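Bug report (template v2)

What were you trying to do?
Predict the complex of my protein with nicotinamide-adenine-dinucleotide.

What happened?
Run completed; filing so the output is reviewed.

Input:
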Amino acid sequence: MLGLSATDQVFILTGAGISAESGIPTFRGAGGLWRNYRFEEVASPHAWQRDPRLVWEFYSMRRRAAAAAKPNPGHFALAQLEGDLQDRLFLCTQNVDGLHEQAGSCRVVHMHGELFKSRCDTCCRPPFDDANTFDPTAEIPRCECGGRIRPHICWFGEVPFHLDEIFRARGECTVFMAIGTSGVVEPAASFVAHVRGRARTIYVGPEEPANRFAFLECHLGNAGEILPDLLRA
Ligand code: NAD
């Protein structure tokens, strides 16, 4: 149990690891997506300019994998925590799979976008729901303005979403917990360094992250096994 006080403000940062037990591959490590793909070729503005079909094939594959996945006990424990803490919990995810919402979390901040949304690469039409997978023989879908429709994902080299809101919540938290994130992808990897010294910092995952030095507590194990007990009210 965490032993939270009635005034604690909890900031949770989740990474690919929380969805690993749901069967969605992480990026790094054995079986990780970057073992089979080079991110420069499928997840960057340059890749989109050079070969948008390859980019859509990559995200279509990820849409199919995420559509078949179900939330695991780690996602459900976080949804329960939101029920307990209400607006004293800020849930920020680097994941794009939508499994936090499927588990019942209502206020999830998606700093790297959402797999089941698309947007125009040219105009400022807002992102829209889109679960389609790409037919490699078809043309890249177009917006009314003539721009191409792209996945609503923050690619390498792009600025993550909702940073103002995230930095505000980070500044107010008294407990910071990172779950299933290797601590190498910026800016999320540095969040803990900003709160270290004034907030209780906790990591949950099967191995120590690269930024282990900044965590006071490290709970080694799978999120789906650790979180239900750790987050019980
Ligand atoms: P990462 O692949 O770099 O690290 C994953 C971490 O999860 C590792 O530290 C690993 O030890 C840990 N892990 C593995 N199994 C776990 C488990 N059962 N429980 C807890 N932790 C476990 O991923 P990252 O740090 O999240 O990298 C950030 C990038 O990954 C983001 O850009 C994010 O958008 C992207 N990503 C998202 C998804 C998804 O939406 N599910 C999947 C792959 C990558």
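What did the reviewer find?
Residues 26-68+117-153 form a domain with the SIR2/SIRT2 'Small Domain' fold (CATH 3.30.1600.10). The first strand starts at residue 10 and ends at 14.
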